[in-house]
Amino acid sequence: MRRIVLACVLCSSLATACHKTDDATVDGKNFDDAPALSGDEYSLTWGPVPVPVGIENTQCIWVKLSNDQPIKVHQMHNALSIVSHHLIVYKDDHDTTEQTTPVACQPFSGALNATGAIEPLAITQKHDDEITLPDGVAYTLAAHQMMKLEMHYINSTDSDQMGSATVDLFAADPATIHDEAGILFAGSPDINIPAGQSFMLHQFLTLPAAFDLSTSHVFAITGHEHKLGLDVQVNVAPSRTGTMTPVYSPMPFQWAEPLTQMQNPDFSVPQGGGFDFTCKWNVNTSNTAVKFGESANDEMCFFWAYYWPSQGSRVCIHTTQTGGVNGYDACCPGDSVCSLIQQQF
User: CA–CA separation, 150 vs 123, rounded Å?
Assistant: First the structure.
């Protein structure tokens, strides 16, 4: 299988030219060398909406694609405005009514949907993000597929801005596709950064038997923190005391434009094993503790992993707030605590 590339380059705004980031290469591969986008193109647009100074919100749209026949999406290009914090692109087999004007929505509600009928295809923090899946791998979308775009934005500039995003999907020849891609969104809510202090969180997430990645191919990982974020490190291991294999270790970690690190070769997770992960944060200069939350003024310790063949999207957490000395692991949908997890976002 040829080297797959998920090209992520930084743009200061949709109207300005792109430039290379400091971490523009991985394993000697320059992200600018991504395969050219090709195939039938289908486009979606979120916004534009006015975003006054200091305003933060999460808003969604629901819109049907223009495809008359099922398609196999092998490539994607997402472009976000300067006020965008992140965009989640969902395949939505749950909702049936279009809503093309952005409206307030609960963050990550699609990923935590108990029915499993809403699945994220991509989570973009880059202002210009090109995604090419591995050879033979794609997302299958039905004719006139309902799509959900979830935008989290915040205007931290000194002037009013317009928030917007475009999503371009590129369909491959179905005869070239043999597997579906999926996304794992994993991390912990156990964050408490005292005023005037820095903080580090180190945990191990054991994947449940119902979500077995022992024969899967994990091919890309992206870390996620907010503005105090200093570092995200991820290892894969057969157990919490087993040999750790590093799979995500950007140097340096850039919280606003985190590296999507390609796995060359890709890897699987042994049965009974999971992910050992560490998040670090800079000194909290505010007067109150910073805890877990979706707001850009809160903090997060998560990473998402692209893999194939898909078993559906999952949101998996480890927490020491319950479950005894080793804590508690949960993967949603499918766990009884999923509704409680959703309330924290």
Answer: 9
78 with 84: CB under 8 angstroms?
no
**Residue 235 bridge partners (DSSP):** 246, 276
Is residue 296 within 8 A of residue 229, CB to CB? The reply is no
Contacts of 241 (CB under 8 A, 6+ apart): none
d(Cα 322, Cα 340) in Å, to the nearest integer?
Answer: 12
Domains, the chain, with CATH or none: 8-178 (2.60.120.310), 182-344 (2.60.120.230)
Taking alpha carbons only, the member of 137, 273, 267 closest to residue 204 is: 273
Q: What is the C-alpha to C-alpha distance for residues 240 and 191, in angstroms, rounded to an integer?
A: 20
Which pTM was predicted? 0.84
pLDDT tens column, 69-120: 999 999 999 999 999 988 999 999 999 999 999 999 988 766 666 567 899 9
CA–CA distance, 61 with 103 (Å, rounded to integer): 7
Q: How far, in whole angstroms, is CA 58 from its chain's centroid? A: 15
Cα–Cα distance between 34 and 29 in angstroms, integer? Answer: 9
Query: pLDDT tens digit string along 54-83?
Result: 999 999 999 999 999 999 999 999 999 999
207 and 269 Cβ atoms separated by less than 8 Å: yes
Tokens of 80: 């976000």
Give 297's Cβ-side CA count (13 Å radius): 12
CA distances (Å), 239 to each of 114, 184, 245, 269, 273, in order?
28, 19, 11, 10, 5
Q: Which residues pair with 280 in a beta bridge?
A: 200, 231
Give the residue from 189, 185, 187, 186 showing the smallest Cα distance to 321.
189
3-state secondary structure (DSSP) of residue 128: strand
- Phi, psi (degrees; rounded to nearest 5) at 279: -120, 140
